[in-house]
Design goal:
Residues 2-94 form the BLUF domain. The protein is an alpha+beta fold. It has helices spanning 17-34, 56-67, 100-108, 121-133, 139-151, 157-160, and strands spanning 2-11, 38-44, 47-55, 72-82, 94-96. It has one domain: Alpha-Beta Plaits (2-Layer Sandwich), CATH 3.30.70. Bound molecules: flavin mononucleotide.
Amino acid sequence: MLIQLCYASTRKDHQELLQDLSDILTVSIRFNRLHNVYGVLYYAHNSFFQCLEGEKETVEKIFESIKKDQRHQNVTVLSKKEVDQVAFSDWSMKYVQSNRGVDLFFKAKNYEYFQPTKLNDIQVGEFIQHLLEAEEVTLSKVSADAESFNNNKGYKRGYISYI
Ligand SMILES: Cc1cc2nc3c(=O)[nH]c(=O)nc-3n(C[C@H](O)[C@H](O)[C@H](O)COP(=O)(O)O)c2cc1C
């Protein structure tokens, strides 16, 4: 049985944000590809939103280890449902960078900024559709930005677009 599980969480200070994102995406893409798991990750305003799609047991298992991950806390399931097919079939883990389109999406729902835990069931579905159509940022771009950030301590221009 295929399921789609979406949750939100709060980032905990760990390493530099870009390094964390690059590490998370590296592991996710490798593991998910091997296990036929698909999905999307969005990060902004100190919150993550992630959808995981795939075989129920596999998704539940990976979600158990994600919940224990020290890089975030307050992991809250927003929706979990059986699906006929995965929506993010093109991506082991699509990463969408913080963007104005998402800010406008939340403003239109009368939320000041990206606050995924406020979304109701229907709005979660709309947000997933929004992320499906949004531009992807590749792991190689995130990794290159992380490296350039690490090599230029204090140089934040590239960093801003991630928060
Ligand atoms: C926000 C967030 C999203 C994550 N998404 C995934 C994912 O989709 N797939 C995955 O394998 N690991 C993901 N991880 C990493 C896992 O939590 C964990 O580090 C990884 O599965 C390795 O687990 P292990 O160290 O117990 O082997 C994510 C971590 C965070 C913080």
